[in-house]
Amino acid sequence: MIIMGKIKVTIERDSCIGDMVCVNLCPDVFEMNPEDGKSQIVAKWRVDPNDLSTGLVDDSLEECVKSAAESCPVSIIKLEKA
């Protein structure tokens, strides 16, 4: 049996410039908010349905979220082991 870990992903949405790099690199976790044009966590991973900026993802997505965080031009995506 494989035990999956979790990774907490946080987006500082106030500082998002909406360039979609995170969405292009990791669409399983990130999407664009149609109302404000900023990145948000896909509903499936949100810790709280009303909090668009914080998610808890399976560690199988670690490379994906790490790539998005490292490629963000304004460095607003933070990751930590949960």
Strand order across the largest sheet: 4-1-5
State the helicity in percent bands.
10-25%
Give a short account of the largest sheet.
3 strands, antiparallel
Inertia-based shape: globular
- Based on secondary structure, the structural category is alpha+beta
H/I helix tally: 2
The portion of residues forming beta strands comes to: 25-35%
> How many angstroms does the end-to-end distance come to?
20 Å
Uncertain residue segments: none
Compute the number of strand runs: 5
Radius of gyration (Å): 12 Å
> Helix-strand pattern, N to C?
EHEEEHE
Average residue pLDDT: 95
Notes on the protein architecture:
The chain is of the alpha+beta class. The protein has two helices and five strands, in the order βαβββαβ. It has helices at 21-25, 62-71, and strands at 6-11, 30-32, 39-41, 54-58, 77-81. The strands form two sheets. The protein has a three-stranded antiparallel β-sheet, covered by helices on one side. A two-stranded antiparallel sheet has the order 2-3. The two termini are 20 Å apart. The mean pLDDT is 95.
